[in-house]
């Protein structure tokens, strides 16, 4: 069955087609959920919520643009909706923002460790960091998505980078001390 036919069958609530669509895209969308969630269990919950939203809104997909991109946007928005209602974002004075450069040596830091420390960031930092750094959204887009101001987005990104930088430096120090 073609993807277009699968989509059309999902639009008429064909549960078999929905199962196929889930199998086809769940691993990719789970990785999106994992980036924005605190842990694995929360990512699983977010994936389920995202698919419920996808199946409810699939009738709105008009076969224009990438279907996978549409799924990813729905997934990100579903996850972010949870944090919007929890009011995890602080209003920050833009004048207090100091840009932090975060350099990661891939030979010293594994991707798994990096994902782990990103997941450990406070919600507001993790959301902005992932949206800006990993998914390429602008501060204006992030501000609109999270219902915050641009300055708060910039500040949360700077603080996320600062926190990650400190964590990575501590990790490197501990690693070099162990090898002595």
UniProtKB/TrEMBL annotation:
The RNA polymerase sigma factor 70 region 4 type domain, residue ranges: 112-164
User: Origin, by domain of life?
Assistant: Bacteria
Q: Per its UniProt record, what Pfam families does this chain match?
A: Sigma70_r2, Sigma70_r4_2
SUPFAM superfamilies assigned:
Sigma2 domain of RNA polymerase sigma factors, Sigma3 and sigma4 domains of RNA polymerase sigma factors
State if Transcription regulation is listed as a keyword.
yes
The answer on whether this UniProt entry bears the keyword Chloroplast reads: no
User: CDD domains annotated for this entry?
Assistant: Sigma70_r4 (cd06171)
List the InterPro entries: RNA_pol_sigma-70-like, RNA_pol_sigma-70_dom, RNA_pol_sigma70_r2, RNA_pol_sigma70_r4_t2, RNA_pol_sigma_r2, RNA_pol_sigma_r3/r4-like, WH-like_DNA-bd_sf
> What keywords appear on the UniProt entry?
Sigma factor, Transcription, Transcription regulation
Q: Which residues form the RNA polymerase sigma-70 region domain?
A: 21-87
PANTHER family in the record: RNA POLYMERASE ECF-TYPE SIGMA FACTO, RNA POLYMERASE SIGMA-70 FACTOR ECF SUBFAMILY
What NCBIfam families does this protein map onto?
sigma70-ECF
**Family membership:** Belongs to the sigma-70 factor family. ECF subfamily.
What name does the UniProt record give this protein? RNA polymerase sigma factor
Q: Look up and give the organism this protein is from.
A: Thalassobellus suaedae
Lineage, please? Bacteria, Pseudomonadati, Bacteroidota, Flavobacteriia, Flavobacteriales
